[in-house]
């Protein structure tokens, strides 16, 4: 099982700032099977990024994903008010599919 | 536009079986291009994948829950279901159903989610 670690658990940033969210895997992720989801309070997660760097339909280009091997990053270039939320990375290359513990991006 | 909606009891007694249904509307559950999954989230915590089913009936479960989980599909009635047996307080969570869109390589991403349903295990 691939364990995903997201640290820090919380990022305190201001609107307009750049957010860099790391995700580290316990072993190398083959096939680029790494996705990112955004979750707001009381709502279901929303797919942002899949295949490490491909944006899902309708996702603004201020969201980007990068990385390889065991280290991956979600970057939000300029935080908008609606971007303050919890972000999860997810491995989907094999069973069991796993999620990181999440990083909360809060308003500073 | 495809939508998913979970339904089922919000309260289950310890040792009993949790049963939930996910109704798929606006699209076909019979399409071979998708897997159909259950995912849960305890309050204030992260996400745990429970398992998935294909319209062919093939299933894969999370090994951590495999002995207690059954996922089934009813393509004629456009829904799929989750049964989780011998529940304890640790199974209290929001339960989501989700569509897994198959990507090259045969794996899948969760592109559409239900709104989630809270299930509490308590006597």
Can you walk through the features of this model?
- The complex is a heterodimer of chains A (108) and B (123).
- With 108 residues, chain A is an all-beta fold.
- Chain A is built from no helices and eleven strands.
- In chain A, the strands form two sheets. In chain A, strands 2, 4, 5, 6, 9, 10 and 11 form a seven-stranded mixed beta sheet that branches.
- Chain A starts with a strand and ends with a strand.
User: What is the count of β-strands of chain A?
Assistant: 11
By oligomeric state, this entry counts as heterodimer
Mean pLDDT across the residues of chain A is 96
Radius of gyration of chain B: 14 Å
Report the mean per-residue pLDDT of chain B as an integer. 94
Structural class label of chain B: mainly beta
**Elements of chain B, N to C (H/E):** EEEEEEEEEEE
Percent range of helical residues of chain B: under 10%
Question: What are the low-pLDDT stretches of chain B, counting only 5+ consecutive residues below 50?
Answer: none
Work out the largest interface and the residue count of each chain.
Answer: A-B, 26 and 21 residues
End-to-end separation of chain B: 39 Å
Largest sheet of chain B: 7 strands, mixed
Concise account of the structure shown:
Chain A is an all-beta fold and 108 residues long. Helix content of chain A is 0%, strand content 47%.
Features:
heterodimer; A: 108 residues; mainly beta; seven-stranded mixed beta sheet; four-stranded antiparallel beta sheet; B: 123 residues; 11 strands; 0% helix; 54% strand
How are the SSEs ordered, and which strands pair?
The complex is a heterodimer of chains A (108) and B (123).
Chain A: E1 4-5, E2 10-13, E3 19-25, E4 34-39, E5 46-50, E6 54-55, E7 63-68, E8 71-76, E9 86-91, E10 98-99, E11 103-107
Parallel strand pairs in A: 2-11
Antiparallel strand pairs in A: 1-3, 3-8, 4-5, 4-9, 5-6, 7-8, 9-10, 9-11
Chain B: E1 3-7, E2 11-12, E3 18-25, E4 34-41, E5 48-54, E6 59-61, E7 69-74, E8 79-84, E9 93-102, E10 108-113, E11 117-121
Parallel strand pairs in B: 2-11
Antiparallel strand pairs in B: 1-3, 3-8, 4-5, 4-9, 5-6, 7-8, 9-10, 9-11
């Amino acid at each position: 099982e691939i364990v995903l670690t997201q640290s820090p658990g919380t990022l305190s940033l201001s609107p307009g700032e750049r957010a860099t969210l790391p995700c580290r895997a316990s072993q190398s992720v083959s096939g680029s099977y790494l996705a990112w989801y955004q979750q707001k309070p009381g709502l279901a997660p929303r797919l942002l990024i899949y295949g490490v760097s491909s944006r899902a339909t309708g996702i603004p280009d201020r969201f980007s994903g990068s990385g390889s091997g065991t280290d991956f990053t979600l970057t939000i270039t300029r935080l908008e008010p609606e971007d303050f939320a919890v972000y999860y990375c997810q491995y989907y290359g094999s069973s069991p599919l796993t999620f990181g513990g999440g990083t909360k991006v809060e308003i500073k | 536009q495809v939508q998913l909606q979970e339904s089922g009891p919000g309260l289950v007694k310890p040792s009993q079986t949790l049963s939930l249904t996910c109704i798929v509307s606006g699209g076909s559950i019979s399409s071979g291009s998708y897997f159909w999954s259950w995912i849960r989230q305890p309050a204030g915590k992260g996400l745990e994948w429970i398992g998935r089913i294909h319209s062919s009936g093939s299933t894969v479960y999370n090994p951590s829950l495999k002995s207690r989980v059954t996922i089934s599909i009813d393509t004629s009635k456009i829904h799929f279901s989750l049964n989780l047996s011998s529940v304890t307080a640790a199974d209290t969570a929001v339960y989501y159903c989700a569509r897994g869109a198959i990507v090259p390589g045969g794996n899948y991403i969760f592109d559409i989610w239900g709104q989630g349903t809270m299930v509490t295990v308590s006597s």
